[in-house]
Amino acid sequence: MNEHKDFYDNISDNEIRVIGSHLSQSPDGAKPSEKNAPSGKQRQWWWWAILAAIVVATACTVLCMLLMGKDAPDEEPAADVSQSYETVAIDSLVMTHEDAPAYCEERNDTVNDIILHIVTPLGCAPKLHLGRLPENDTTMIMAVQAADVRGDNGEIAGAYIYEGELKSKGKSKLGFCAIVGNEITLGRQAETPLFERAIEENGYFFRQYSLVNEGKMIDIKPKGKSLRRALCCYEGRIVIIETAERESYHDFSQALADLGVEEALSLVGGEAQFHYTTADGTNHRIGTDVSDRYENVNYIVWR
């Protein structure tokens, strides 16, 4: 009986034993339940093995979640822009003298072996324009495609305000241009009061990639090469700067920063339309009209 008592009393919380009225003996004289039951050391080893497996599985799961949840590079780096406010607010009506005719001044510069074409509108004010550009408009001094149009649904990519009306939402691109009255502002900010001002005062607002902010280049994600174009604050004026050859965003941003650009906002590049009139009255036309394919093609137009 003592033998049986010890056997039953030694049942641990994690064991199940079948107890009958007859206990058969194995050939060596040991009871089946005694012979097959794991020893204390064996049970301890199994518990440690199970615990180790759980720890390893948990660690692997956490690691996978961290790797999958890690922020991929944004179109623009998700840097702290809480203190990067509107750094440029310039009256774009820059004239050489009173009653001077409106025109565009152009010149070339080379930075880091990259040829940059710089076009400065003088004596004219900017506004956004939706849809096809008017033909034979003698008041239009310069026009350049502004916000990107999505290829999947034809909608404007990012926030876009036209004459105080919100046409599109989105903040994936931190760079912005706000036009309120004759004041044009470039900056890089997730939230800006100029968004509300543009709505309240029938102004204009759009977002694009920020290439230079407060004189520092912004290295953004797209790595391909193309003809690049940007709206910039340079030497105290608002200008358009474009490349003569296909360049990456990285090289273009670096060249703009090295040139001394204070703020730069990417514009639609490649074969996008770009019109400007020089002092001799010549109307220069670059790019292709895609308004038949994209209803929401849009421009900054200086008149």
Describe the protein's architecture and organization:
This protein is α+β, with helices and mostly antiparallel strands. Helix content is 20%, strand content 33%. The protein has five helices and 18 strands. The strands form three sheets. It has a seven-stranded antiparallel sheet with strand order 2-3-14-13-15-11-12, with helices on one face. A six-stranded antiparallel sheet has the order 1-9-8-10-6-7, with helices on one face. Strands 4-18-5-16-17 form a five-stranded antiparallel sheet, with no helix packed on it. The longest helix is centred in the first third of the chain and has 30 residues, at 40-69. It is elongated and about 95 Å long. The N and C termini lie far apart (109 Å). 32% of the residues are buried.
Question: What does this entry show, briefly?
Answer:
With 303 residues, this protein is of the alpha+beta class.
